[in-house]
Design a protein that fits this description.
The chain is α/β, with parallel strands linked by helices. 32% of the residues lie in helices and 23% in strands. It starts with 17 loop residues before the first strand and ends in a 16-residue tail after the last helix. The structure holds adenosine-5'-triphosphate and magnesium ion. Adenosine-5'-triphosphate binds at residues 27, 29, 34, 36, 56-62, 229.
């Protein structure tokens, strides 16, 4: 069996996983208007992994919230698999994992993962099978009966990812899901996510402040700039001969093509010019 090449918006059949056209977002605050996003155009193909990176306040979370239908744009249109964002939410076309794992402390690991399935009326035998498979996928089969406060932060985050995948979404929205983790755990989670996203074929929109994290995970990195939040540049990841996501292993982190891509993203963050030191608000580690 061969893995498909990384998707690109022009080659994929059917509607885009996410299509953002001319989107603006203005917040009305007591001290005046805040233009959080201006003229955002972005199409993400089914199965594609796209990271959003940029300084604090450039509108990454705002864009995620618009895609997830947690807020409305003030201008422009968004669609998810060819549907309005609201319909996609009702149809559970996407799963969400944000910075805080957001688990219910009174429920066991298995019961947290089962929650979306319960809410949508899956039969209990199907539910049990599905939960077992998800926990296996995130390496937590032995922890099914534990409670969240008995787990490390990384393990809690893996429960949240399993929960986000419960309904087999074709799209995963992740806003700094690994932000609170130590570096070793974080790299492990990145490898797990690469494997899981390749296995499930889900498209992923991933917000991060870490350039190497974005490079390791993504087919394309969207570099944003603030005030107002705009897309500065979209950098396709060219990671050597075998750029398939399923083939990304820890060795990639030490390859020349990886460092070249880290440099390309850093330069895009600085508006295209070579840089001597890190961009403000963005980690180079
Ligand atoms: N509910 C809100 N009301 C008013 N202003 C808001 C609201 N949400 C976000 N903003 C403003 O919109 C801009 C973009 O915020 P957003 O949270 O999207 O940034 P971000 O790129 O996710 O930043 P960070 O990297 O710090 O998470 C900021 O100026 C922020 O103050
Ligand atoms: Mg944010």
């Amino acid at each position: 069996m061969t893995d498909p090449a990384p998707a690109s918006p022009t080659s994929a059949p059917g509607p885009a996983a996410v299509e953002v056209r001319g989107v603006d977002k203005v917040f009305e605050t007591r001290t005046g208007q805040v233009q959080a996003l201006q003229g955002i155009d972005l199409a993400i193909a089914p199965g594609e992994f796209v990271s959003l990176i940029g300084p604090s306040g450039c509108g990454k979370s705002t864009l995620m919230r618009l895609i997830a239908d947690l807020d409305d744009p003030t201008g422009g249109t968004l669609s998810v698999f060819g549907k309005p964002a609201r319909q996609a939410r009702l149809d559970q076309d996407y799963g969400i994992a944000f910075q805080q794992a957001g688990l219910l402390p009174w429920r066991t690991v298995a019961a947290n993962v089962a929650l979306p399935l319960e809410l949508h009326g899956a039969a209990s035998a199907d539910r049990r099978d599905r939960v077992a498979r998800l926990l296996d996928m995130v390496g937590l089969s032995d922890f099914a009966d534990r409670y969240p406060d008995q787990l490390s932060g990384g393990m809690q985050q893996r429960v949240a990812i399993a929960r986000a995948l419960a309904e087999r979404p074709r799209l995963l929205l992740m806003d700094e899901p690994f932000g609170a983790l130590d570096e070793m755990t974080r790299e492990k989670m990145q490898s797990d996510l690469v494997r899981i996203s390749a296995e499930t074929g889900a498209a992923v929109v991933f917000v991060t402040h870490s350039i190497p994290e974005a490079v390791f995970l993504s087919d394309r990195v969207v570099v944003m700039s603030p005030r107002p939040g705009r897309i500065q540049e979209i950098v396709p990841m060219r990671l050597g001969a075998d750029a398939r996501r399923a083939a990304r292993t820890d060795e990639l982190r030490e390859e020349r093509s990886f460092f070249d891509m880290v440099t390309a993203v850093r330069e895009a963050l600085h508006g295209g010019s070579p840089v001597a030191s890190g961009a403000r608000g963005v980690e180079n580690r």
